[in-house]
Amino acid sequence: MSLKQSSISPLELERSSLSFPINELIPLIHGSHSAAQEFISYQKTIAEDPVLRFNPEMLGESRVDRFNMMCKKAVRYNELFDLNCERKKQFRCVQQFPEVTFGGLHQGMFIPTILNLGNEEQVAKWLPLAESNRILGCYAQTELGHGSDVQSLETEAVFDLKTDSFIINSPSLSATKWWIGELGVVANYTVTMAQLILNGKKYGPQAFLVPIRDLNTHEPLLGITVGDIGPKLGYNTKDNGFLRFNNVSIPRENLLARYVKVSKSGEFKRVGNEKIGYATMMGVRANIILNAASYLAKFLTIGVRYSLVRTQFKDERGLEMKTLDYQLQQEKLIPLIADNYAILFASKRITALTRKNMENAKIGDFSLMQDLHAILSGCKAVYTWIVLFGGEKIRQACGGHGYSLYSGFGALQEYAPNATYEGENTVMLLQTSRYLMKNLKKVDDGKTVSDFVGYLRDYNEEIKSICLAKEEIEFHDQEVLRKILRYDAIFKVFEARQKLMDGVSKDLSGKDSWDKHAGIDLVESAMAHINYFTFLTFADEVAKVSNEKVKAVLLRLLNLFAVNRILEKPKGLFESGYLNVEQFRILRNIKNELLKSLRNDALGLVEAFLFSDNALASALGQSDGKVYETLWDWMKNKNKMNEPGVHKKLMKQLRSGL
């Protein structure tokens, strides 16, 4: 069969018309040219390995077969790269496979929890076993009836004075540990969060090391009921499991005891500063934020490449148009490129702040803790939503072919749990808003607030102001856009506080006003705060760029990010009178101009992330532009439904009952 194909790839033509040198942009993303080259070599090794490389045939296999293949990949990956090293490289492996890989919970939660919450003796005993994979662990916190509400967990750990041990029980059906990754099939140990009970008194959830399967037979131990929770919308190569305890006895020494101790006589004591432990665990949330930029870059690479290959309908000359030449397609994709760079630069700042906070904590300085907690919570929510909802927008922008698993967008369902684990996103935003309400009260009380909320210091005066810019050229000014986003944050924080007070004036308690009356405004305030933080971070990074052509394209992305955020949530700016109808019209015009001006640079901006065809796992995102040829090849040669004899067997079965 002959497929229509130009002698010159449309992607090559696009690459030759960029306004900036892509080689000067690449180190801004990867850290350096050498790091970028290392990333290319790393991907090449995976793509050339017969076990690790992407095989479209696996997309049609059963869950059991796919899980089995992922286990084989994990073993091979460990041989080549060492999974322990991945923990120190922000789990770059998650970017290389279309389905979730083995080891994320063992390396990302089980081992760090031992390191951060275990005392010296416990770390010395358990860490070598975990790092050598002699024990395989998971982190069992979430229960069938409780997720983000950790304080209400039901699993109990009662201290038995006679045996010097803890007796672990699941007292109800809702106390069943649920959704725990790598528990269903793989793990033989867990870090279990359970309510510590001493002499009938609860001391809150604490972390316990609990063996759950025999290290030789892998059979469940006495009192343990464990298994897989079943098929999910995605994440089906991860064995999310359930776990119930029935009088499971563990030694007293299995309570992770860096910050809490229980004596032989059953006395409870806090030791050290548990804030240090929390500071170290912040890194998990920081990694989610860091990976958000990579996932979005992969989806955008697929979407932009396909939109430059796919032609649809004819122009006035009778020539079919590339879909990216349509303004509506640009509006779907290009603002997400701006978001991608905003998230990328913010994630680098957040990683640096997380390290700084850890260094400070080790010397007893916790001054950064609350600010960082609010940033991590809010950014985790906002950024993962951008990737999840943005990824779906990109998929839809690819039309019918976007629905095929060959498109690479099956990874959307693999990414979806990021909006829930490590803190459900709405709960995360409410934590950020609580921080904002506290800081607004500090300002009212004449107390000092940090620079992270410095924009609130003069809120009483600022809230009376209006935007003085009138001409279109003024709205291209980064400072004007900064002031608009700043005002938006001020107004929404103030309005959320007013809403809380309004609830109290209507005889609601403070808690009921928070839960039942002001929740929407509180979340809006948190999102506005994160938008402002993200813009400032983006602007700071752009200011450091030395190459003028790279800086110019990044400035256009920065402006698009700001304008898009303003137009997406205009309610506060309009209700307050800060912007008028004419100013909004100008901003809409500017957005359209920015889309048009960034259209020819779209391909270079996404390809600078350097994802290989193997990592994209997409027929639509092939770097050579051979979309239809690849779809045809995978359908014909990688699809078991089309193997000889299959259809006859299926039809024989069907006809036997019709």
Unreliable stretches? none
Please bin the fraction of helical residues. 40-55%
Using the coordinates above, name the CATH class of the domain at 429-600. Mainly Alpha
The amount of beta strand, in percent, is: 5-15%
Average predicted confidence as pLDDT: 92
Q: Largest sheet at a glance?
A: 6 strands, mixed
What shape does the CA trace take?
globular
Per the CATH scheme, the topology name of the domain at 429-600 is Butyryl-CoA Dehydrogenase, subunit A, domain 3
User: Structural class per helix/strand content?
Assistant: alpha+beta
What's the CATH architecture of the domain at 429-600?
Answer: Up-down Bundle
Task: Outline the structure in words.
The chain is an alpha+beta fold. Among the domains are: 106-272, Butyryl-CoA Dehydrogenase, subunit A, domain 2; 429-600, Butyryl-CoA Dehydrogenase, subunit A, domain 3. The protein is 53% helix and 10% strand. Strands 1, 2, 3, 5, 6 and 9 form a six-stranded mixed sheet that branches. The longest helix has 36 residues, at 274-309. The mean pLDDT is 92.
